[in-house]
Fold:
Amino acid sequence: MVTRLERAIEIPRQWYNIAPDLPSKLPPVIDQHTHGIADKKILHRLFVNEVARAEYSGERFITIPEELREVYSIWRPTPLVRAKRLERYLNTPARIYYKNETVSPPGSHKANAAVAQAYYAKQEGTDRLVTSTTAGQWGTALAFGCTIFGVKCTVYMSKSSYESKPYRKDLAEAWGAEIISSPSTRTKVGRDILKADPNSSGSMAVAKSEALEDTESDPTAKDAVGSIMNFVLATQTVIGQEAQAQMEPYEDYPDMVIGCVGGGSNFSGIFWPYYYEMVSKTAPKQVEFLGVESSAVPKLTKGQYIYDHSDVMRMSPLFKMYTAGHTFNPPEIHTGGLRVHGTAPSLSLLVNAGLVKAVAYNQPEVFEAGALFARTEGILPAPESAHAIKATIDEARRCKAQNKEKVILFSLCGHGILDIEGYREYFAGNMKDNDADPVELKRALDEVKGLYPWLQGND
Ligand SMILES: Cc1ncc(COP(=O)(O)O)c(C=O)c1O
Structure:
């Protein structure tokens, strides 16, 4: 018989896909050229077949190939830790657990999706994966995945991160990837942007356009996606599934699951399996789900649920999602991973249906929470993860004020050892508030709605 402890250390055998359990069908993907419902072929041309397939699939469980489970065993299962020192510091009756994804070779949850895409790229004979990255976490993770499976890797990294995070670039190069500062002269998109503004610091949406142009011009290449798409989110469900098994020996079950939201992959990865237990009526209690975003890019809390592109040049298909607008120009922040204008369609649908809540935090309070976590639990969190920590701390403090027990689980999706410059600025007392400019946000949203008024509902 398998004991609970043995079950707690098994790597999951399947990924969970939430699509069949959503409260309504996902709105269709719209072709960027014809503006009709996108032909499946478009996604298959751009992305690895398995990624494209999962965008339309109603399959609830996807078997994880054994070869991939073997690769996962390099760092999985990741630890589930009770944050007792943080609890003691806060003097809270809440019980706080975190799932520590920082132990993957590139240092974040992004490795879960990267090795999966590199594996399927190899299987289908794709020679090269091309991608875009801002914080650099996804770029390094893909470089790692590609080196494991012997696939070439090209990463367009927005110039601001390329210059401020040289170690991420070095790490990706150590794994054999080619890293290009974006905007670059490599693509027409990049050349046009540089012509208009030779000092452009780039953005995720610009880097994405360059990656898509590069992919479209090379039949041996495909675009690799670090978030937003269903397959990526599904591959992250190893996080939540492991957490469920690992919490059993503690005889606890979360009342609340918290994760930061860029495109939505680490948050979905941790909460989807709990959502499944709720819809399949096997959960012992109702669980609240809380997504945490940066107030610099407040798409869930101040954006709109409309059709938008995932890149600035409108080369990607249109997805219905919470967005700040693909031309939205966010303030510079040290949290590149949350500096993304759009959100996964599945997460957007759940937020719109009121089944998932969202909150936004400003940069200084997030770094304060990150530093407190480092000084209590010992791990320096990625600034992205520090958003989830801030929300956890606030909830634990509310529990204290109300003298209420609550089990909180959050996703510690990455470490901040290569993001140290943000902490340096914070400790030097130089970090400023960085809320999104409401005028700029309105401009960007009005622009999207003006482009495709017939696609947009009343949300
Ligand atoms: C450490 C870390 N956490 C979170 C994110 C946000 O992405 P997602 O919402 O897809 O998890 C990123 C993105 O780069 C990241 O690097």
Observations:
- The mean pLDDT is 94.
- The CA atoms of residues 316 and 391 lie 33 Å apart.
- The two ends are 52 Å apart (CA to CA).
- The longest strand covers residues 152-158.
